[in-house]
């Protein structure tokens, strides 16, 4: 017997009922709880994608996060470091914004800003080799998070291309991603998740 899951009955949102939205809200919690798994599955798409770099994009992400972890950064910082380049597969021309958008509900404004802006700051190390302005980050000089982003790139991001570095495996970071993504800090949908958890 083919069992179809219960679904809302409207064909346009303007015709939705309380019953429809109670049903949909019930599904939201379950879907939200599986977000860490979906994020890690997407991150694994970077495996084997070198793009000419000394290490593939997954190893770069793992190495960046491992360096941050070994330096004593908190879990939210380490997860930001792990996911900072997750947008590479979908946002060839704006990968920092993709990763930052995924992180935004779960991390501080500072960590979101670092993720969102790291591409410009990382350019300090190579833009001049590809016809760009390595000092493009200077447009942000004076911003409260300028130094934090510069430090992220210097200590963790630009340094994470060493094929011999002993990075922690993705499984090491799974519990951290789960904890950071368990509770949104800022999201218009956060209350739905809270209601489901209660």
Automatic annotation (TrEMBL):
Domain of life according to the entry: Bacteria
Secretion signal, residue range per the UniProt entry: none
Domain HD: 57-131
Name listed for the protein in its UniProt record: Metal-dependent phosphohydrolase
């Amino acid at each position: 017997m083919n069992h179809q899951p219960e679904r809302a009955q409207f064909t346009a949102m303007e015709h939705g009922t309380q019953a429809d939205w109670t049903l949909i809200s019930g599904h939201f919690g379950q879907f939200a709880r599986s977000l860490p798994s979906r994020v890690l599955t997407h991150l694994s798409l970077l495996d084997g994608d070198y793009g000419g770099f000394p290490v593939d994009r997954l190893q770069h992400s793992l190495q960046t996060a491992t360096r941050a972890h070994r330096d004593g950064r908190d879990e939210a910082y380490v997860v930001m470091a792990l996911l900072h380049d997750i947008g590479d597969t979908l946002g060839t021309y704006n990968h920092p914004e993709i990763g930052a958008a995924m992180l935004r509900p779960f991390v501080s404004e500072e960590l979101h800003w670092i993720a969102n802006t790291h591409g410009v700051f990382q350019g300090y190390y190579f833009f001049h080799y590809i016809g760009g302005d390595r000092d493009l980050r200077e447009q942000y000089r004076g911003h409260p998070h300028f130094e934090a982003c510069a430090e992220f790139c210097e200590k963790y991001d630009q340094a994470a291309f060493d094929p011999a570095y002993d990075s922690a495996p993705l499984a090491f970071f799974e519990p951290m991603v789960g904890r950071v993504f368990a509770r949104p800090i800022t999201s218009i949908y956060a209350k739905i998740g809270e209601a489901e958890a209660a």
